[in-house]
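User: Okay, second chain of the day. Same drill as before: sequence in, structure tokens out.
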Amino acid sequence: MTYNIRGDKMVITDAIKGYVEDKLGRLEKYFKESDITANVLAKVRGNRQIIEVTIPTSKFILRSEEEHDDLYAAIDLVTDKLERQIRKNKTRLKKQNIDNKIKEFNFDYDYEENEESNEKIVKRKTIEMKPMDEEEAMLEMDLLGHEFFIYKDMETNRICVLYKRKDGNYGLIETN
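Assistant: Same drill. Structure tokens below.
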């Protein structure tokens, strides 16, 4: 695995770089191929240290972000979270691997199977898409108390997803 480590509003020292490579190196056992690149971004927001890790593979992207007062603790948390993501989705990934769609993961590695997932869809909802603008969608989302809201944009006639970001601002995903 190769590492692309950069800092936003902070300097990445050799100690930080070594720690990131050491911790994320634990994930190498899950990958068959060594040409995987882990993109790591360390940044500061106020007194908080934020670490974002993105590992793109040929069929999907592993991504995690953690925030902590201590950068090293944030690195530990993000590594644990990524490892849990791989373990949690092992069954789905293994099925796709058997279908020869995903070749990056090494499922011969022996690790505990105690994190079997019973997750399933427990509720389905049909919504009526009434055309509205962004301001109306934000108001509607806040009134409902939801973290995201799906609506049809009245100007572009596209389906959009409005969501609340961790920093308190809003994000918008638009479809083609």
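The two ends are 34 Å apart (CA to CA).

User: Thanks, on to the next one.
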